[in-house]
Amino acid sequence: MAKDSEHTFCTNAEWLGRAHCDKCHIRHLMFFSELPETAFHKLLQPIDHYIYPPGSVLYEADTHKKFIYSIRRGMVKLVHEAQDGSCRIVRLLGPGATIGLELLEGEDYHHTAIAVNHVDLCKIPVSTTRQLQSEYPALCKHVGQQLQEQLDLADQWIVALSTGTAKQRVAQLLLIMEEFFSDEEDAFILLNREDMAAMIGIAVETVSRMIAKFKRQKILYRYKDNRFMCNVTALQQITRFG
Amino acid sequence: MAKDSEHTFCTNAEWLGRAHCDKCHIRHLMFFSELPETAFHKLLQPIDHYIYPPGSVLYEADTHKKFIYSIRRGMVKLVHEAQDGSCRIVRLLGPGATIGLELLEGEDYHHTAIAVNHVDLCKIPVSTTRQLQSEYPALCKHVGQQLQEQLDLADQWIVALSTGTAKQRVAQLLLIMEEFFSDEEDAFILLNREDMAAMIGIAVETVSRMIAKFKRQKILYRYKDNRFMCNVTALQQITRFG
DNA sequence: CGAGGGGTTGACGCCGATCAAAGCTGGTGG
DNA sequence: CCACCAGCTTTGATCGGCGTCAACCCCTCG
Predict the structure, then answer these.
(1) Can you give the pLDDT at residue A40?
(2) How far does the CA of B236 sit from the C1' of C9, in Å?
């Protein structure tokens, strides 16, 4: 088996071990969903499985490491930082999403990827991806699907989160959290104000005001711990009429 | 050769005739750039070549026609219209871009596509694309490239055109026009105020004010006809410091 | 010549950015 | 166990930018 040149084993707290894609119980929604089990028997580079704590930087924009990540659990934000230090979140991704796919076309990452939650993911060398792509054309189709999904998300970001009044945008954001990131009990984790502000492009204080108001109006309410629920129809009204 | 069931020949003013992809002099930048000439000898459905006048609707969101378009000349805007009638332009595409690729994954178009200019394009049936994809895996890679490019554009849209003050956004928009849509003389066509407003999400009057101010400051000036040039460094200053 | 559409400019009011200060909460150490 | 602190959230006060409405200009076309 090839040597892993980047990590010293056993001293990396985040490293959980080699991924066993052929036995992965959630492979149906992961990056290699279409491949047969035998595909993983002759990989030149290992696929590793990590857990990162909140705030971890998975990779930075304009660097050229050589890994694609498939998210198993948790949320990752893709961030663009302007030269003046301010930053804008351009995407928020969860289980099943693949990030770093731009390495298949170009040299370096297009965003900085940061763990929002505790994030559980598989780290796949680009070379492995290329190898599997050439052997299994179905993987190309899956790459296309991933890209199309992210394109749709980006478009939604423009239309829903970058248009309208602050109130409307916050409402849209909550609807998105509820739709894409709610757990089996239909509750979702409320991001901190800074992240929300960076998503919709308004000031932190304004986000806080809107969220506080929604809480007072019981449109948004704590369910358990840090998990919240919201009145979807009320929020939809707001997105339409302000 | 298969019948063209949609168009009555010779009565359609926009129809220019069958495309001859194997002889196309700009094929290197079109959708089928990687395919050998022989690939086009056994197509089940024809590929047609059209010119549409400005304002033509190529397709509408949420309809399910079955064509992908490869742009040869001119500009196409992808529009999302909200339920209240307002609309937002999420992408502006030029020669070499392919639109309608979402049909490869789903049933219907995700945007309304409208010609900005006189637009010259090839209309490719989805079935033909699938057929060629299965025969030539290289086409899959090209689809991936197209999607990645559009994803990068969408991200740029979020970061550059949906962030900052009105002045900064207009400056960013001009820089984008100059970078991506300038002709061989480095001049570009100035869009009308309504389109610009729909791109950056601000009021028409505000766009007008900014453009007028830039003209007065000679940061933007008419070159010939409706073609303009701009002072790039001045605009870059503005995007940074307002 | 008049009508109509797009662009420009002015006046006004409101939304939201900014600065500042005061709660709240979780973590640390005495 | 409580005091204290740091970081996050909330709230208030103020001011500027921008949306809105309206008038006017300019050009094209009938």
Answers:
(1) 85
(2) 27
